[in-house]
């Protein structure tokens, strides 16, 4: 996507680069929402286990 954006900007096709930039933003947001939730759950479980080990 970044190569497409760069090549379109180089030839002056700004509307196409803008649409791909918007699509890229949507992909980044979805990726962040899906993986951040899973990784935060994993970190929360690991933190609780470590806290229990240190308390003992």
Helix and strand arrangement:
Blueprint: H1 2-11, H2 14-55
Please provide a brief summary of the model.
With 56 residues, the chain is mainly alpha-helical.
What report would you give on this structure?
This protein is mainly α. It has one domain (2-55). It is built from 2 helices and no strands. α1 (2-11) packs antiparallel against α2 (14-55). The longest helix has 42 residues, at 14-55.
What keyword list fits this structure?
single chain, 56 residues, mainly alpha, 2 helices, rod-shaped
| Quaternary organisation of the protein chains | single chain
Element-level helix/strand string: HH
Q: Sheet with the most strands?
A: none
The total tally of domains equals 1
Question: What's the overall geometry?
Answer: rod-shaped
Global mean pLDDT: 84
Beta-strand residue fraction: under 5%
The low-confidence runs, each spanning 5 or more residues with pLDDT under 50, are: none
Output the number of helix runs: 2
Instruction: Estimate the helix proportion, in percent.
Output: over 70%
Structural class: mainly alpha
């Amino acid at each position: 996507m970044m190569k497409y954006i760069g090549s379109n900007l180089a030839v002056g096709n700004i509307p196409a680069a803008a649409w791909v930039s918007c699509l890229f933003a949507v992909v980044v947001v979805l990726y962040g929402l899906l993986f951040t939730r899973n990784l935060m759950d994993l970190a929360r479980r690991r933190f609780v286990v470590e806290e229990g080990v240190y308390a003992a």
